Structures are given as C-alpha cells and as structure tokens.
Amino acid sequence: MIEKHVYKTAAEWLAARTSYIGGSDASSIIGCSPWRNNVQLWEEKTGKKASADLSNNEFVKYGNAAEPLLRKLFAIDNPTMRVEYEPFNMWTNDELPFAHASLDGWLTDENGRFGILEIKTASISNSAHAAQWKDKIPDAYFCQVLHYFAVTGARFAVVVAQLKYPAAETPYKVTKYIHIERSEVEDDIALLIECEAMFAENIRNNIAPALLLPNI
Question: Which domains are assigned to the chain?
C-alpha cells in the first residue's frame, strides 16, 4: 500500500526521513552522485557521520525560494493538469519498507493518471555542465525520479528545470519541462531498487558497502 504522510513541522518531517532511503540518496547508492559516494551516505545513515548542513548554501537557498514560483508557472502553462503540493510530505510504500519519497508536487493529467513533479534550478558554468541537460536530465536527478516512480507508483514525471547561464555574454535563463513516462524506464527502476535494497541491508547489518566512485 502506498501512503502519503504530511507532517506539521519541518523538524517532524526531517526526523521521519532519517530512517529511510530518499530520492536524493539514490544516485549515491549506485555511484553516480557528484556530491557524495555510497560509503559517505552509509556513514550518514548509520550515524557515523553527520550530514552536511546546506541550509546556507546560496544555490540551495535560491532553489528553495524559486520552487513555489516554478510550480505555479508550470500550473499556468499546463492548465489541463492538476498540480498539488503540501509542505513536509512523505510518501511510503509497504513493498519498499526502506524507501520514502518527498515530492515537489504531484500531478493528475487529463486521463486521470498520477504523476510526479520534480523542480530543479541550476547555474550552467561550462560546456560539460550544459551537456548534462541537453535533451535529458543529469544522471543524479534521473536516479531521483526513478526512486520516486518506485515509491509512489506514478505513471509519469515532469521535471521543471530552470537553467541559468550567468557566464554568457548576455546572461539569461531557460525553463524546461522534461516529460518521462514510467513505461520507458521500468528496467531502470527495477535495477535501482535492487541496489537500494542491498544498501538497506548494509545499513541494517552495519556493514560498509564497497566503494563506488562517480564517473564524472
């Protein structure tokens, strides 16, 4: 059974999330996160190391401030789609007892299908970074969407990406809507969940996983 929980405060929400694998953990587990590797994540999940405090990071602060505005913009641009959101939401699935999903929004399309809304902001500083967003989304964010598919049972996802190009001769922003159908990524979902289940066993048994390094 899939359930949505809504907590009253950020503190309650954060406390509830600690015992689960979340979407932002998925890329670390399979070795494609540019921010932390799987052993570092395991150390955090087993209480051996504190998670980094990113609350004062300028990019994180910008993303948090922009999120409700981008969600509203998406709703305006897509009037046939119902867009919903509740702060401090957490979804669980009894078939995946180790996993949770906290969504930037959820969607219902004109055919009544349930979907995921994921919102990203990024500052594009070089050609390699730009290439990660060319006709796709970066691997770390793709893993996050796969995780959300698995937990919520959603049939599709839309990634709203605001990309800033501050180094251009005339700085500009681009907002993209990237649509992903679950039916096209079922094998990827299954592989990710298999890896997450093994990682959950590592946490439960207090056994460090073999180190995986991102190919970046």
Answer: 2-205 (3.90.320.10)
Q: Which CB contacts under 8 angstroms, 24+ apart, belong to 203-207?
A: 203/42, 203/45, 203/46, 203/98, 206/46
* DSSP line for the chain: -EEEEE-SSHHHHHHHHTTSB-GGGHHHHTT--SS--HHHHHHHHTTSSPPP--TT-HHHHHHHHHHHHHHHHHHHH-TTSEEE--TTEEEEETTSTTBEE--SEEEE-TT--EEEEEEEEEE--SHHHHHHTTTS--HHHHHHHHHHHHHH--SEEEEEEEEEETTSSS-EEEEEEEEEEGGGSHHHHHHHHHHHHHHHHHHHHT-PPPP-----
CA dihedral sign of residues 184, 153, 118, 38 = negative
Handedness of CA 156, 162, 167, 170 (dihedral sign): positive
- Weakest mean pLDDT among 42-46, 153-157, 210-214: 210-214
Q: 111 pLDDT exceeds 90?
A: yes
